């Protein structure tokens, strides 16, 4: 019998259960996917803890993954059994060996892109696509500030910004994370545990500050982000790894320079099949060209989803994490022979809150809340 992760009450990682599941048949307009890999994001933790309410309990978890279509519902014409697909906007329940979702939310995956790569970057990569290419369309030579530059979203953002000719200043919490961000293409980094972020941005920009700040951290960085902006600059709040921004006096935007604020989400941009395909194709082109490389720094068996979430929440991870269903583990073990460095456990020391950039928090509800987080 197929397996899935579910929870019957909100709480810590211990509420997650590895349970039998019925192989549900897809209804009209749906497809069933046999998952080969599942993405891990901060929004999954938000649902588990109750920050975001699940539609009902017990509930599945997860909205991102990749695999092969093994059943097609009535009326679906653009996908067929055997197609390789990836998705990032489905209903809760992707932490499973079999997953049913609306066919319009799944896109064909090019043969050149591995399942794990897609599962690790669909939500994060599409988030970066709308942030850098739509929310604020960055011209070549622009300088920006991006919080949590060593996280899952941040790592992709560093690479994408470099490919666009954009100077990305990234905040990090340690020298090791600074090194990772620079390796991925960041123009400069700021260790917020030791440096004054606003003063360093002023120094790096020779007093000009930045026209846009991308912030997935939330309440801990809200005012800092505003203070780094030029007059009439744009604050893009796309996650809340440290908690939501509350009790904001909108007048502060005028006081700090007639600023703009937006709270985008993946669902707000990929709101039609055509837009989803356009965004996905741009992401796939970046992957196939090698301009973006996905760092899958942690892999966990599906049954250890709680352990994986605990590592993410305690800031013990870098890059991306994937869950591998048990039916795929033997295959994966063979593929991973000779590259054991990719399956190391996360580092023991936990950095501070800002590097939860997977906040990827942005999936069905707030894309980084993937929308982030991650």
UniProtKB/TrEMBL annotation:
Q: Which reaction does it catalyse?
A: 2 a quinone + NADPH + H(+) = 2 a 1,4-benzosemiquinone + NADP(+)
Quick one: a GO cellular component term? Answer: cytosol
Question: What's the domain of life for this entry?
Answer: Bacteria
Alphabetical keyword list:
NADP, Oxidoreductase
Q: Where is the composition biased (Polar residues)?
A: 315-343
Among SUPFAM superfamilies, the record links this protein to: GroES-like, NAD(P)-binding Rossmann-fold domains
Q: What is this protein called?
A: NADPH:quinone reductase
From which source organism is this entry?
A: Modicisalibacter xianhensis
Its ancestry begins with: Bacteria, Pseudomonadati, Pseudomonadota, Gammaproteobacteria, Oceanospirillales
């Amino acid at each position: 019998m197929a397996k899935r992760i579910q929870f019957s009450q909100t709480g810590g990682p211990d509420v997650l259960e590895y349970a039998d599941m019925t192989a549900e048949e897809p209804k009209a307009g749906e497809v069933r996917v046999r998952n080969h890999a599942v993405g891990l994001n901060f929004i999954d933790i938000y649902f588990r803890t109750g920050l975001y309410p699940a539609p009902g309990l017990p509930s599945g978890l997860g909205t991102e993954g990749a695999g092969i279509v093994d059943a097609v519902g009535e009326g679906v014409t653009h996908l067929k059994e055997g197609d390789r697909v990836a998705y990032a906007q489905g209903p809760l329940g992707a932490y499973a060996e079999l997953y049913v979702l609306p066919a319009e939310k799944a896109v064909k995956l090019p043969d050149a892109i591995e399942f794990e790569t897609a599962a690790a970057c669909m939500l994060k990569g599409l988030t970066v696509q709308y942030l850098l290419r739509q929310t604020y369309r960055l011209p070549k030579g622009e300088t920006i500030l991006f919080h949590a530059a060593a996280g899952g979203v941040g790592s992709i953002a560093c690479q994408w910004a470099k490919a666009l000719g954009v100077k990305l200043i990234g905040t990090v919490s340690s020298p090791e994370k600074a090194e990772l961000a620079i390796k991925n293409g960041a123009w400069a980094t700021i260790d917020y545990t030791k440096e004054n972020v606003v003063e360093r941005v002023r120094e790096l920009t020779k007093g000009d500050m930045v026209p846009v700040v991308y912030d997935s951290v939330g309440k801990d960085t809200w005012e800092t982000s505003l203070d780094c902006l030029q007059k009439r600059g744009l604050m893009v709040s796309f996650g809340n790894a440290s908690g939501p921004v509350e009790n904001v006096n909108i007048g502060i935007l005028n006081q700090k320079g007639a600023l703009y604020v937006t709270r985008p989400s993946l669902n707000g941009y990929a709101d039609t099949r055509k837009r989803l395909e356009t965004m996905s194709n741009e992401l796939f082109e970046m992957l196939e060209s090698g301009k973006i490389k996905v760092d899958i720094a942690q892999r966990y068996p599906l049954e250890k989803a709680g352990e994986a979430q605990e590592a993410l929440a305690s800031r013990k991870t870098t890059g991306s994490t994937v869950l591998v269903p048990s039916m795929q583990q033997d295959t994966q073990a063979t593929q991973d022979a000779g590259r054991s460095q990719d399956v190391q456990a996360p580092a023991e020391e936990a950095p501070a809150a800002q590097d939860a950039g997977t906040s990827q928090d942005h999936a069905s509800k707030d894309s980084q809340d993937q929308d982030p987080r991650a």
